[in-house]
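Fold this complex.
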Amino acid sequence: MDSANSDNSFSEHIEDTSSETSYSMTDPKKTVKHCCRKIVTFMCTQVGVGGLIVGYAVVGAFSFSLIEGSYKDPKIDEVSNVADYTVDELWSITYKLNKKLNLLEPEQWNQEVLKLLTLYQANITKCVKEGYNGITKEVTWTFPAALMFCLSVFTMIGYGNMVPHTIGGKVATIVYAVFGIPLYILYFKNMGKVLAQTFRWTYTWIYRCSMEDSHPLSNEQPQKRVIVPSTACLWVLFAYVATGTAMFSSWQSWSVMDSAYFCVTSLCKIGIGDFAPENILGPVDGDPTRLVFTFVYLLFGMGIIAMCFDLMKEDVTVRVRNLKNDIILCFEDIQSRAVDFYKRRNSLE
Amino acid sequence: MERRRSGRRNTKPKKSWKQKCKDCLRQFFAFLFSNVGIICLVIGYTLAGAVMFMKIEGKKEGEMDDEYNFWNKLNTSYNETLEHLWNIASVTWFSENGVNFLNRTEDELKKFQAVVVNGVKISDYDGGSIYKDRWSIYAAFLYCLTVITTIGYGNVFPHTVGGKVATIVYAIFGMPLFLLYLSNIGDLLAKSFKWLYAKFCLCKICRLRKRKTLNANNMQSVPAISSTTNSWKTTTDKTWSQNLNVNKRTCETTDGEDSDDEDTETETSSSTVSTKDPQDITVPISLCLAIMIGFISLGALSFAGQEELDFLDGSYFCFISLSTIGFGDIVPSTRNEWNFILCSIYLMLGMALIAMCFNLMQQDVVQKIRTCTDIVRRIARCRR
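Structure:
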């Protein structure tokens, strides 16, 4: 019982301090302290999680480029063998015809070479079907590419333009995802909350301003919480996708439609992979700032989506509650009317 | 809510027959609309999407934009390569040593190869006839499923502009639907799993309960016991609201007495309803993890048997699919219909199971954190 009493006093103490910090901001020392604490909390939660996720991606990129960089695709050898064979055959055809006729017959030569080319093309097609993708090893697991791969793993986009081939790489991917996905979800929730708060604050501010302009006497309910409508969120999303579309279509030879398709499928985490940010880099030593922009665009876009989710959920719940109330009112009305009707009929009878 | 209702029913067992029937019907309809309905809705949506994509994408031979382009490109590239080769040959044929010739032909061939590789990657050309039955009903169904579950393998993707627009719209409406499915079915599975777990671990719980009732009278502020009592706190079906409430309450009061009161309250209420309420317990994380690993290895085994994969590749495929990453380097083949049906059932069930596990794990983690903070508080208080 003693402990319980002390518990109570302790809790009161806590409540006191919290109420002091929240209500009486007169003491400058406490204000500074409060501010400091808030800043530290913010740094630890939002910035900290953001930094953590970027650091995790960088570490992952290094380790994946180490693990997968040592892998040699047997298909590359196969394709180069096929190419060598074809070149040799070409030479032998040319040489043979040359020896036989002492001059090159275009028709016969063309026929033979066309046959050879068709065979070559069929072989290459077979190789592609079996997993060869035309990218040599050095290009595949560069650091930027590995960074994009890591991003696509822990955000669950999974473009699939780059995949681990070795057993070690596969196991590493699984482990990386197991730890990365919860981290990402943490980031997603945190970012969504912060952005939602900021957006709601901005929206409220604008709303109040506009209301003051039109109705100067609307100071009666300043405490009423303004709920951001879903349409505002949708506009934000639309603007974000449009920005991304403009960005990607200017960098790449993609059409506007393709860029929009890429943005939406990426931000929805579908990641079909027919368009992938690997292409954004273009040649091997493409502009690395583009990659950084893509990385930031995708990560921030996830935050925006989380924000919209947050805000829209609130809006929808309020609307559903209103609808429910309306329906209940309607039913009550009908009920009372029915009761009245029966009463009248009974009295008549 | 449900528990309260059932409790009320227990206190007032004499109900009219009509009322009972009504109640039963209402529950049945609620179940139909909430769980069965949503499953049907998801499947129906996917089927409708499959038919739509088949209509949009499955055009006649040669009409496909990319494939048509590819055909043209391939033909021109054949001609170009031939011409270039002829030039090389006619310039160098007399030199008799092939070095120059070989280098130049190799360059030429590499260009040709790049064209072929790109073309094959973009269109599904497989060396034979140009049109393959890429958008069969199975493939289209699987495509729709991967879009709304956000897996996105990428082995099948839209080529036409209409297909791309349709994908965007389809995803925007499909994903919330699937999220609804996940949360609903995950909740249902979590509830039933908890019930099973409670039945399974009945003896253990009885033992714990006995020890608790013995100890509860003597020492209340010992943290070790408080942890066991805390694990008895309610985490009912309305987890979210309940957790929020409890959190708020603990924030406001933060003392042992109140939580003990709460425990006794739940104890009494549960003991009036029955000897134990299965929704009161939390399932340990290790069990959830074991279920997930078990499900993944089950899938790995079944896929390994069907699609010529080894065990590691199978589990890799299952993990990548269920975590909705979906690289698409290993994809379920849509040639065999049984295979395909198995795969879609596996995906839909698996994602609900994962949602369930997350649900249960979240409860457990929340519980543990609360216990930890309680212990820390007690320790801090003792030192004071």
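The two ends of chain B are 42 Å apart (CA to CA).
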